[in-house]
Write a structure and sequence with these properties.
Catalytic activity: ATP-dependent breakage, passage and rejoining of double-stranded DNA
Mean pLDDT: 92
Organism: Planktothrix mougeotii
GO molecular function, one term: DNA binding
Order of helices and strands: EEHHEEEEEHEHEHEEEEHHEEEHH
Number of helices: 9
Strand content: 25-35%
Distance between the termini: 63 Å
Shape: elongated
Structural class: alpha+beta
Enzyme class: isomerase
EC number: 5.6.2.2
Largest sheet: 9 strands, mixed
């Protein structure tokens, strides 16, 4: 994490896939527990990736630590090339088992990184091994937004399948990170404020990034949560912390700016979030994912970190930008009044 600047994904004409990066390269020295090279261990042993045992990465994007070893197990063959220490290392695996020794040869350039080519096993994937380019492109775009400045290139060389003469090539690179993600999602909406509110910080080794923008022509909220680049569709402590701090901060500012009078009820969270598009990305060193599909972040400490970090930064931002604060509060008050009117109308109909 933090070393790679370019990742290339190639769908090859023969049905195989090549993934290449310019990171540090998978280590090749002998692994203390297995006696094999670290490269072979990572490809053949579950839970042997860089995120286990500490010290490898500050945070990493996987869930279970079974990524590349599972790709190996489910492939007819895998060929790995590692560039590090002015050498090129190669090894081939078939159905999860190494069929060659790790070989090395010196190279002149000081290149680093890993290139892995794999061919899915048709014995396991009996219904076909064609990758859906659109599905993968969508996930790669998401990853590029979440990792500002990292360039991701997708090349589809399956010309027969594409029914075209040239490969499909797409490149994603967003220097603005999740701010650009918000702009992309709000592309066809009417923003309440042009400036996308962006907050980032780190506490107790947990990195938090938040981007927010309210729109006038939206009456629900769109809040996307990510933990270590994994989309947490079932929410979690990072999203709970964000919702709590938005409600508290905006109510406090509404009272300070005399938009809510003494004795008036606080605005509800759903009123404040009406029309909001938000992305929160948490990078947690030891994530606890909950639920069968691991799509909910469970770390209790993240809630408090989000609350305090976002609370301080958002309060400061809205005090420096009173026009934006007033616009968001006015919209929330309108939402509250509309909800009250709807409730009264419902009660009236029921009483009849």
């Amino acid at each position: 994490a933090g070393y790679c600047t370019h990742i290339e994904i190639d769908f090859n004409a023969d049905g195989s896939v090549t993934v290449t990066d310019d990171g540090r390269g998978i280590p090749v020295d002998t692994h203390s527990k297995t006696g094999k090279s670290a490269l072979e261990t990572v490809l053949t042993v579950l839970h042997a990736g860089g995120k286990f045992g500490g010290g490898g990465y500050k945070v990493s994007g996987g869930l279970h630590g079974v990524g590349v070893s599972v790709v190996n197990a489910l492939s007819e063959w895998v060929e790995v090339t590692v560039f590090r220490d002015k050498k090129e290392y190669r090894q081939r695996f078939e159905r999860g088992t190494p069929v060659t020794e790790l070989t090395s040869k010196p190279i002149k350039e000081n290149r680093t990184g890993t290139s892995l080519r794999f061919f899915p096993d048709t014995v396991i994937f009996t219904s076909g091994i064609e990758f859906d380019c659109d599905t993968i492109a969508s996930r790669l775009r998401e990853l590029a937004y979440l990792n500002a400045g990292v360039k991701v290139t997708l090349t589809d060389n399956r010309l027969e399948l594409l029914k075209r003469e040239t490969p499909r090539i797409e490149t994603y690179c967003y220097e603005g990170g999740i701010r650009e993600y918000i702009a992309y999602m709000n592309n066809d909406k009417q923003p309440l404020h042009e400036d996308i509110i962006y907050i980032s910080g780190e506490r107790s080794n947990v990195q938090i990034e938040v981007a927010l923008q309210w729109c006038t022509d939206a009456y629900s909220d769109t809040i996307l949560g990510f933990a270590n680049n994994i989309r947490t569709i079932d929410g979690g402590t990072h999203l709970e912390g964000l919702k709590t701090v938005l409600t508290r901060t905006l109510n406090t500012i509404a009272r300070k700016r005399n938009k809510l009078k003494e004795g008036e009820a606080n605005l509800g969270g759903e009123n404040i979030r009406e029309g909001l598009t938000a992305v929160i990305s948490a990078k947690v060193p030891d994530p606890e994912f909950e639920g069968q599909t691991k799509t909910r972040l469970g770390n209790p400490e993240v809630r408090g970190i989000v609350d305090s970090l976002v609370g301080e930064a958002l309060t400061e931002y809205l005090e420096f930008n009173p026009g934006i604060a007033d616009a968001v509060i006015e919209k929330a008050i309108q939402a509250f009044k509309a909800a009250e009117a709807a409730r009264r109308a419902r009660d009236l109909v029921r009483r009849k």
